[in-house]
Structure formats: structure tokens, C-alpha cells
Amino acid sequence: MFIKMIIRNGDRIMITSSGGALFSRLFTSGLLALRLRVLWMGLLLCCCAAPTLAQVCAEPADGQTSLRGCVHALPDAAAARVLNALGLPVLTGGEWYRIDLATAGGRYLLDIGLPDAYRVQVYQQQGGQVRSVLALGAASTYTDRPVQHRRLMAPLSLAPGAATVYVYYHSHGKMLMQARLWNADQLNASDTEEHLFSGLVVGIMLAMVPVAVLGLGGQRALGYRMYGAIVLTNILFVGQVEGYNFAFLWPGAPAWNMLAPGALGGLSLMAHIGFAMDFMQMRTRMPQLLRWHRALLAVCVLTVAAHLVYELDTLLTIQMLAYSGLGCAVAFIGVRRRIEAARFYLLGTSILMVIPLILFIFVVLGVQLVPFFSVLSFPKFGGLGETLLFGAAVVSQFQKFNARQAESRLLRLAEAEQLLLAEQTKLAALEQANERLLRLASASHDIAQPLASLRLAFSAMAPQHGPIAEHIDTTLAYAQSLLKDLIEQARQDQRLPEPIVLTSMFGQLGQAFQAEASVKGLRLSVRASDVRVTGSSLLLYRILANLLANAVRHTPSGRIVLGTRRRPGGVEIQLFDTGPGIPAPARERLLQPFEQGGHSEGFGLGLFIVKNLCQQCGYALRIASTPGRGSCFAVFIPSTLMC
């Protein structure tokens, strides 16, 4: 087997092969044989992948021709020599190509393979004549195209035989031209297939938008919005590289059309950053990465704004490559930390890394790795894969969130059942207590009758026995009052809670104790209050009456103030006096029964009764005191017992 290379005109290479055994001896031993086999397989692959490598491209019967084998890139110096010889202007800053054709004659469309360009110029040379068939500049609108197609098309009118076409274009980066030659019928059929396929891809991507809509009421509403932004920017980016946007959305804005790929890519990158911050729960689980992502988001915003002025396509592509690597690292961290659906997100970010890398290699560096596949198709497949994988991540996370919500609802239901059981137990205990209290009230009623008779009898004996009879009468009167209180308490417990107007109750208390306070020279001040509470007016009156009685009894001079003050979670009824005060160690002791504050007056039951009545009503008793300056007794009523 041997290889023969024929060089003609200094710029065309024809590679053929024929049978022989010249190199077969080299495939017999060692490392050299292995290397030669690899080289030979590479050459065979090139030959198989390029069956049309020839001097000219002939028109096949199906009406379309791939011009890959007869498209020759012209360096600037070679292009200048050829164009000067033909008397054509030399354009710089872009790419020059020469295409050699051999056709049977007729009208054809030369597909340059690009959706747009800053400038494009196509010349046709045949039979010694050269003419311009396409000339578009940066200000050319979509309607200025001689063939209004989503890709740049040059109309050719060829006579039978050989012809040469010179193509110049200046577009994004240094993307290699993938030209094709069409007749009208075959182009229409191909466009129909491509429209159907592109519509299918965009339709699938649009079908994922409801995923974001359905998730707006969930736990991560921002993440769902960012996913929706990713889907929409991917759709617009695919439409841009396929040429649909210029044809249908902004046909009269060529300047914006050239800026749109970078701007849409930057917007897609910003949506990715926002989605990553929310989806990967960076606020709570990755605070350091959250700060980095916020900084990257700010840089991306500034870059997109600068791109609208300075055309920073390359910088935006580099930013996407840099972030895609960071995104894969973050996704890997999320997988290790067991963040929900992080594996789907890792696959999606991998596509985000591969697609910009391919675009960077193909477009910016001008490398063509896949001969039969257009670079402009990569964003379409990449956007579709990314949308589906991110959508799977969102759906998976949303389903797990709903599962947790359902589990939480079941737990709350179980807790509610436990609370209901506890409440039923409490009600049963209250009923038993009420029954015991009613029995005690009945017994108190029966005991009160003989006590009343005894008191009448001792009253009749008072003139004979003097102080002894008076003491017995006082004791019986106190016993009667206790029995009366028990009966009233039992009666009150059988009533439903009633609204209590504190202003009215304070007025009654002021009238009841004003005379006693005046006798001691005390100023009793009652502050009006518009607070309304629910409960037992009798019990609340007894609480405040006991506190006022203690204050009047133990305050030698000064004043006593009764009022209310709102507190967080309720209201506080406060009673201030200027008495001797209560030392801190003695406060808990005075709340016990029959404990007195260093004097013999009273029975030592006032504060004990107040404490028990507060517990019964659901209030809280608070005591603050400064020895030598006075005390403050406060009854806290929670907001649940307020009207």
C-alpha cells in the first residue's frame, strides 16, 4: 500500500491510494509498528471522511452539494494577489475562501453556513468574467439580502463547466466556513426538515417552562424563576445562532443582531448563577460560595453592559468557560453534601461547560473538529440537554419538597390529635374538680347554717363575756366569709367567661378603698384604662382587692397607684405603693400561706390567695420591690384572654 500526493497550482492537494506492499514490512515489530499503524488508521479515517477531496465539486443528482472538499482558505497575501489580478478590492480583517465548482449550468444558491456577519462579499468567476453576487455590510438589514433566508445565501447563475467563487466574510471569531450548493427545490425540502426539528427542540424547551410556573409557590420560588430565565435565554440563543431571530424578531436592527449572541449568552450565564445560588442552597449551606457567585454576577452584569459598546464576544465566552468549571465544582460539592437532585444539576453544568468550550474552539480559534457537523447545531442540542437536566433537577427537588410537606402535615395532624387528647383529659380533670368543688360548696353551705346560729348565740352573750365573746364573734365572721367565698367561687366556676371592662372595675375598687386610704393620709390614684379582658370578674376583683388591701395596710405614708401597661403578648395591671418594700429573700416566703411580713396584723393569706387565684385564671403574678422605697405588684394577663 502506498500514498501518492499530487500538488497542483501550489494550493490544491489530491490524495489517492492504490494496492502495494511498500510499507507492509514496517508493520511487523515493536513500537515503530504501533506508531505506523496509528498513523495509517488516521490517514484511512481522513480518506474515508473526505471522499470528495478533489480539485472541483461536481453537482450530484440529489440537487445539493457539500463543498467541504473544494473550499480553500486563502491567506491574506494569497488573497491579495488573486484579487489584484482580478481587479477586485482587497478586504481585510476577515476570512477569504475560494470554491472551485463544476456544474451542468443553471441557477444555484451558495449557502455560506452563517446566520450573519459584519461584512460578507461573494464574487463569481466564470469564462473570464467576474461579478459580485452578494455584498452586505454592518448596516445591511434582513430585507437587504438578495435571498431572504435565515442563513447567508449567494445566488449563482452558472453556465455549464468550471467556475470559481470567492467568498469573504467577517463574523464572530474565526469560524470556518461550511458551504453548500443548493437548488431551490432541495433547499425548500431541507428547510422544512430543519424547521420541524428546530420547532421540536424549542417546543420541548418551552414545555419545561410550566415547571418553573408550577414551582413558584414552593420553597425555592427564586430558583424556579431563574430556571424559567435559563429556558427562555436558551431558546433565544438557539434562535439567534440558527438565524431565526434576525429573520422574525429584529430584521431591521443589524447592529443589535451582531451583539445579540454575546448579550444572550451573558444573560443566560446570569440566569445560571442565580439558579445555582438558590438551587444549591448557598445561603445556608455554602455562604463562602454565595459571596463568590454574587461577585461573579456583578462582573457578568458589567461585562454584558460593556459588550453593548465594545463587542466583547470573546470575553463573554471565556467567562462562560470559567463559570462552567466553577459550576461543575459546586455541583460536585452539592452531590457530596447530599443536596437534593444535585446529580442532575452536575450533568447540566457539564453540558454548560462542554458547549462554550466547543464554541470557543470552533469559533474563536477557528478549528473544525467534526467535518460533517455544523458548529451552529451544538447550542441547539446543548440547550435542549441542559434544559431537560435542569428541569429534571427542579422536578425532583419539587417532588421531594412536596413529600416533606406531606410528611410535615401528617406530623402536625398527629400533634393535633395528641393536643386534642390532652385537652379532653384536661376537660375531664376540670369536670372532676368542679364536682369536688360543688361538693365542697354544698358542705360549706351546710356548715354555714350552724355557724350563723352560733354567731347569733354569742352575740346575745356579748354583754356578759365582753372581749371573749367579741373574739369568738370575729372568728365566726371570718369562717363565714371563707365559706361564702368558697360558695361564690364554685358559682363563678360554673359560669362562662365574661367580658371585663377594667375602667369600671378600677372605679369600684377606688370607691371601696378610698375612705380607708384617706384615714391613713394616703393618696389613692386609679388610672383609667380602655383594656377589655375575658374571664371571671369576681376572681379578678378579689385579686386586686387583696393587693389593694395589703398596700393600704402596709403603706405608712405616700401614695398608691393602680393602672395598666401594655406588654409584649398581653397587658399588665400594676399596683404601686410607697411602703417599706419587700426584701428579695422574703418574696417567695410571703407567697406561702400564713406568712407575714414582720407584723401581727392580718392572717398572712393575702398574697397566697392572690397567687392561687392568678394561677386559676391563667394570669401571672410579678413582684418588684426596692426596700425603703416601695413595691410594684403586677398581674400579667396574656393576649389570649383579651377582647
TrEMBL record:
Its EC number is 2.7.13.3. Residues 442-641 form the Histidine kinase domain. Residues 413-440 form a coiled coil. Keywords: Coiled coil, Kinase, Membrane, Transferase, Transmembrane, Transmembrane helix, Two-component regulatory system. It catalyses: ATP + protein L-histidine = ADP + protein N-phospho-L-histidine. The chain crosses the membrane at residues 196-217, 229-250, 256-280, 292-310, 316-335, 344-366. One of its GO terms (biological process) is phosphorelay signal transduction system. It comes from the Bacteria. The keyword Hydrolase does not apply. InterPro entries: 7TMR_DISM_rcpt_extracell_dom1 (IPR011623), 7TMR_DISM_rcpt_extracell_dom2 (IPR011622), HATPase_C_sf (IPR036890), HATPase_dom (IPR003594), His_kinase_dom (IPR005467), Sensor_HK_Regulatory (IPR050736), Sig_transdc_His_kin-like_C (IPR004358). One of its GO terms (molecular function) is protein histidine kinase activity. PANTHER family: HISTIDINE KINASE 1 (PTHR43711:SF1), TWO-COMPONENT HISTIDINE KINASE (PTHR43711). This is histidine kinase.
